[in-house]
Design brief:
heterodimer; A: about 300 residues; alpha+beta; Beta-Lactamase; seven-stranded antiparallel β-sheet; five-stranded antiparallel β-sheet; B: D-Maltodextrin-Binding Protein, domain 2; 2 domains; five-stranded mixed β-sheet
Chain lengths: ~300, ~325
């Protein structure tokens, strides 16, 4: 009788052990599924968001390429055609009338090149309120030969975007300038003859980037080739900060990595613990190849998970 | 009766005004070489904290820039005092502008050449045949003198300011100031270990930099005013270096009004670097003094490179001794 009782007890114990084992395994399985599911969902959401970022980058690249095309065409004209002052005025004015994204544009010649007795010879057109001002940059105090927008493309012998700057004595505005060098061929050799430029105002860029931020529900930073903040929701960062000084001031080393990776022409995703007093953020970044600028989008992980695939 | 009371009140009021006004402050204009930045923190803080007034001076600070020249301002009388490096000051004196040094604030050289290690530049000799940017300002005797002294045959590109041409690859190396453009490079994403650096001071060119200068005529007319300007400026420096947050805040407002780029990371770096520059450790002189050996070494370099034809005696050039009182 006792042995029957013991047998029942033993079998019951075995059943309990098996049941407990099955329960633990099921728990582990579901916990794993849950975690995997979350990771999977996160990854899908990030992919969806990154696709949207890439779409915006493509759009912005096209805008920048269109901006660059105008001075490239003008430089070609100046290389092969002796342009009169009247023609210069028509060309520069029409450049602004046909491109609302442009703030200004200039043609600037080498010393004594356009006029034999003029050290400086330049013509500049820029927006002032609703009107367009036609002027020159020939003031020796302004000394355009030594401005980055003139000297750098001249030295490098190729077009270049300037870092954002305040053009005191020129457009008197915060801007970035795209410069295209042009040359003169005298039958034997080509010599540098001057620079054609277009200016894009930082205000215009900021508006474009703000629209993108609203569309994607993210903080969007536009940075120059050297990392200077061209546009940001925090207006005081513009021109004053670089992505690297922000990394230092906000103690977010990931921002320095992002800046350096962008300079290499790479896109990527970074996670940061805290930004602007809020936990767990994701950074998406991608270069705008046309200008060597970088676009950085920051948003909290929680916001990212709310994104619907088909929006 | 009422009339009498009125006259007495008027007399009392005029007595009070006379007593509260105190001695008249001497109006002084000062040109600190460049745009507002921590390199000149001591002077801005001396003004802000009333230290110039304490020494009987009403100082107006003229903000500089690459289109403004200190020697032109001093020579034309538009500024009573200005900041100059020792090298251009000796040169100007040699050319006829009778400048005197009334206080040597920075005791060493911070100029250096930098190149990216990836460019393959590892030694001075590697700079041969390269493109190098230098400032077109009064410092080119130092930078181009350095290249010439070391027989470096390079294409020199003279620029107004900044490191953009270097960062964009327009030049292989550039002249920078350790407390300024060098840190700009770091703040533009270059890591220190990616740079090859050549300090001028490591090549027997440790020439002191920022000093206070005025015309000899100004000094002779009022040596006490010159000494007071130095004393107040040195006290301003003490204050600035011991109150960095407040100092950077004051400077920020000046920088904003001049559209000067400004961020805390860089400003704090520059202000911290000033401590070492002002220090006279190892020289056995007081703060603000120009060591005779430093003056003679600098003059020797300028004579050897042909920048100056002859040199002034140290005792004629340097009038900053506070013990002359």
């Amino acid at each position: 009788m006792n042995s029957i009782k013991e047998g029942i007890q033993t079998n019951f114990m075995r059943l309990l052990v098996v049941l407990a084992f099955v329960l633990v395994c099921t728990g582990i399985y579901f916990a794993g599924e849950l975690a995997y599911g979350q990771i999977f969902r996160k990854s899908i959401k990030r992919e969806v968001f990154q696709e949207r970022v890439f779409a915006e980058i493509t759009r912005m690249n096209k805008v920048i390429e269109a901006v660059q095309k105008t001075p490239q065409d003008l430089a070609y004209i100046f290389e092969f055609h002796n342009t009169s002052e009247a023609e210069m005025k028509i060309l520069l004015n029409s450049m602004l009338f046909n491109n609302e994204e442009l703030f200004g544009g200039a043609i600037a010649f080498e010393p004594y090149s356009y006029q034999k007795d003029s050290l400086y010879y330049s013509r500049y057109v820029y927006r002032l309120g609703d009107s367009v001002v036609f002027t020159n940059l020939d003031d020796p105090q302004y000394d355009y030969f030594n401005k980055d927008w003139y000297l750098i493309p001249k030295t490098m012998q190729k077009p270049a975007w300037s870092e954002p700057y305040y053009d005191e004595g020129g457009g008197n505005s915060l801007m970035s300038t795209y410069s295209v060098p042009f040359y003169r061929y005298d039958g034997n050799r080509e010599t540098f003859n001057g620079i054609v430029t277009v200016d894009v105002s930082i205000e215009w860029l900021t508006n474009a980037v703000e629209s993108m931020g609203k569309l994607l529900n993210a903080n969007v930073l536009l940075i120059s080739e050297n990392g200077t903040v061209i546009s940001a929701p925090q207006k005081e960062w513009i021109y004053n900060q670089t992505i690297y000084t922000l990394a230092s001031e906000m103690k977010i080393p990931a921002l320095r990595r992002v800046g350096r990776d962008l300079k290499e022409g790479n896109s990527g995703i970074e996670e940061i613990e805290e930004f602007m007093g809020q936990k767990e953020w994701v950074i998406f970044y991608s270069p705008i190849k046309a200008s060597n600028w970088g676009l950085i989008l920051l948003l909290p992980e929680g916001e990212l998970l709310k994104i619907k695939k088909n929006i | 009766m009422l009339r009498r009371l009125f006259i007495i009140s008027l007399l009392l009021l005029s007595f009070q005004t006379a007593f509260t006004q105190g001695p008249q402050l001497k109006k002084v204009s000062f040109f600190p070489l460049w745009v507002p930045q921590p390199q000149f923190a001591g002077y801005y803080m001396a003004k802000e904290k009333g230290l110039y007034e304490k020494y009987g001076l009403d100082v107006t600070i003229i903000n500089g820039g690459y289109d403004k020249n200190v020697t032109e301002y001093l020579g034309s009388g538009k500024a009573d005092f200005g900041i100059l490096y020792l090298v251009p000051a000796i040169k100007e004196r040699d050319r006829g502008l009778k400048l005197v040094n009334t206080g040597q604030i920075f005791q060493r050289s911070e100029i250096m050449f930098v190149a990216k290690k990836s460019s393959g530049i590892k030694s001075l000799a590697d700079l041969n045949g390269k493109k190098i940017s230098v400032w077109r300002t009064v410092l080119n005797d130092l930078t181009e003198g350095f290249l010439s002294k070391h027989n470096i045959n390079a294409e020199v590109i003279r620029i107004n300011e900044g490191v953009n041409i270097f960062l964009k690859g327009g030049v292989d190396a550039c002249a920078v100031m350790y407390y300024n453009e060098y840190n700009d490079l770091i703040n533009y994403g270059i890591n220190p270990d990616e740079l090859e650096v050549f300090y001028l001071r490591d090549y027997e060119m440790n020439f002191p930099e920022d000093g206070i200068y005025c015309l000899e005529e100004t000094y002779k007319k009022d040596p006490e005013m010159c000494r007071n300007f130095l004393k107040a400026s040195l006290e301003g420096w003490d204050y600035a270096l011991s109150h960095p947050e407040e100092t950077l805040g004051i400077l920020r407002s000046h920088q904003a009004s001049e559209a000067v780029r400004c961020n805390k990371t860089h400003s704090l770096w520059m202000l911290n670097a000033m401590k070492d520059l002002i220090s006279t450790d190892g020289k056995n002189i007081s703060k603000g003094e120009l060591l005779e050996a430093d003056y003679n070494n600098t003059l020797k370099f300028l004579l050897e490179t042909g920048v100056v034809a002859s040199g002034e005696e140290y005792s004629v050039f340097y009038r900053g001794n506070l013990e002359d009182e």
